[in-house]
Each structure stands twice: as structure tokens, then as C-alpha cells.
Amino acid sequence: MENRRFQRMKINQMSVDISDGNGFFSGEITDVSRFGLKLDSIPLKLDDRAKHLSIVVSGRGKNFKMKARPRWTQKQTYSKNLGVEILNAPFGWTEFVMDFEPKKKDVWGTIAL
């Protein structure tokens, strides 16, 4: 899990609508990166063995429709958690995610000559 190219950020109040090609389900997103999502509270009926999933991410007044591939599943009693890889990020997704990234410190701004 530490072989990530981009940092994952914890997220609150972001929802997901997801389809495996047979049904439509809703859940929530608990962390996000530029190329992946962790989905929580996904109904057990979702086929996590599907090659592609259609998802719509909703949060902060924006919606992003994209295709994703399941990478891992963690079953709970009444639901499951799902890690997905984003296959085709729509325009504006990278900027949206970058707003959640921690701001980098400007080391040159603290040097006094």
C-alpha cells in the first residue's frame, strides 16, 4: 500500500453512486487520491468482481462521472468497503482533489538575507 504515486487524503461528506452493470448502489467516500478512492458502506449486492464500475462522485457542490476498476474489497456485516482505481478521470478532477492536499511549506519564504 505504500507504493502510491499520490497521497490519499481523508474526506468527509462526499457520496458515491456506483453501478456494476447490473444494479445501482450508493455509499460514501472516506479517502481520495488523484487516481483512487476508498468507498465505504457499499451494499454487499454490488459485484466487486466486475471489471469496470461506473461511479458518480458528489461533493462540495460538484459531480464527477467516471469509470473505475475494483482493486480490493473488505466485507463488513451489512456492507463492504471497496478500493477502486480511477480509469478515466474527468476534466477538473485533479484540481478538485488537489484542494484536499496539504499545502506545502515555502522554505524559501522563511530565509532572511
Report on the structure:
A hairpin with a 4-residue loop joins strand 2 and strand 3. The chain has one helix at residues 93-98; strands at residues 9-10, 15-19, 24-32, 36-43, 53-59, 62-75, 79-86. It is elongated and about 55 Å long. Strands 2-3-4-7-6-5 form a six-stranded antiparallel beta barrel. It starts with 8 loop residues before the first strand and ends in a 15-residue tail after the last helix. It has 113 residues and is mostly beta strands. Helices cover 5% and strands 47% of the residues.
Described by the principal axes of the CA atoms, the overall outline is elongated
How much of the sequence is in beta strands?
over 45%
Task: Name the average pLDDT.
Answer: 86
How far is it from the N-terminal to the C-terminal residue, by CA?
A: 42 Å
- Largest beta sheet: what is the strand line-up? 2-3-4-7-6-5
Low-confidence stretches: none
User: What is the H/E order?
Assistant: EEEEEEEH
Which structural category fits the helices and strands?
mainly beta
Q: Helical content, roughly?
A: under 10%
Number of helices: 1
Work out the radius of gyration: 16 Å
- How is the main sheet built? 6 strands, antiparallel, barrel
Protein name: PilZ domain-containing protein
GO molecular function: cyclic-di-GMP binding
Domain PilZ: 2-88
Pfam family, one: PilZ
